[in-house]
Design brief:
The chain is mainly β and 119 residues long. It is 0% helix and 60% strand. A hairpin with a 6-residue loop joins strand 4 and strand 5.
Length: 119
């Protein structure tokens, strides 16, 4: 199973970006999915989480009201809509998923996508 992020880039403060995370591989089902980010010199932090059905979401206080996490289970894809971006949102954004393969659950990470917000 692979997770591949896309959609990062350079944007001015106040702008928007939409990140995608697509899962592919052998037979599996995806449980909860998350977006994390890591800025230079800082620890990786949880940005947003969405349950398997998409019915419940949680956000870091720093992004509430600006970011929206969603998923399309038919496409095995998760999204992060980021609006009103701030320079402090600059980081590498990572996709994470809890994936069920047979009787076991595994933790998978994407390779990361860079988001840079200029002031």
């Amino acid at each position: 199973v692979q997770l591949v992020e896309s959609g990062g880039g350079l944007v001015q403060a106040g702008g928007s970006l939409r990140l995608s995370c697509a899962a592919s591989g052998s037979t599996f089902s995806i449980n909860a999915m998350d977006w994390y980010r890591q800025a230079p010199g800082k620890q990786r932090e949880l940005v947003a989480r969405i349950t398997s059905s998409g019915g419940s979401t949680t956000y870091a206080n720093s992004v509430k009201g600006r970011f929206t996490i969603s998923r399309d289970n038919a496409k095995n894809t998760m999204y992060l809509q980021m609006n009103s971006l701030k320079p402090e949102d600059t980081a590498v954004y990572y996709c994470h998923a809890e994936i069920q393969i047979g009787a076991f659950q595994y933790s998978y990470w994407g390779q990361g996508t860079q988001v840079t917000v200029s002031s």
